[in-house]
Amino acid sequence: MALVLPVLLMFLAGIMDFGMVFNDLMSMRQGVGSSVRQGIVDQPGSSSDCSITGAADATAQTQKLICLTKTSMGLDPADSRTKVSFPTTKVRGGSLILCAQYPLDSTTSLFDPLLHGILKAKVEMRIEQDLSAFGSTSETALPEGDWTWCS
Fold first, then answer.
1. Measured between alpha carbons, how far is 14 from 20 in angstroms, rounded to an integer?
2. What is the pLDDT of residue 113?
3. Is residue 151 part of a domain?
4. How confident is the model at residue 147 (pLDDT cuts 50, 70, 90)?
5. Domain for residue 145, yes or no?
6. How far apart are CA 54 and CA 141, in angstroms?
7. Distance between CA atoms of 135 and 108, rounded to whole angstroms?
8. Which position has the higher pLDDT, 47 or 140?
9. 54 Cβ partners below 8 Å, 6+ apart?
10. Which domain holds residue 96?
11. Domain count, the chain
12. Is the residue at 143 inside a domain?
């Protein structure tokens, strides 16, 4: 028992930690995907009342899209960061890119060295409505991250 129990506990802690990380990643991807779908048809929701970090230049529509993304992800909105960009044009046929970051943490603290970093999600879709009221902006990236991967 003394030999098997520590290995069994580590195995169970690993299942819990990696399961929680996978759940957060799937929530993030689904939230970003559904938000960009709402954004491309110019329906970013009605609420711009969320914690937006460092995106003071964001238009009202862009703020609504950022808040919709944070809400759709189902994770802690204060810890998540979002970037909205238009690589070409904001009219029909152009693209909307929506990216999000969320800190990666170990639930049990046993795997902190392995699970320390950032979860990332990026979705790009073709615009279906005129999005002239939107603007490209990004929140301040998480301390360990940047936005170079989102372009």
1. 10
2. 80
3. no
4. very high
5. no
6. 9
7. 40
8. 140
9. 138, 139, 140
10. 4-138
11. 1
12. no
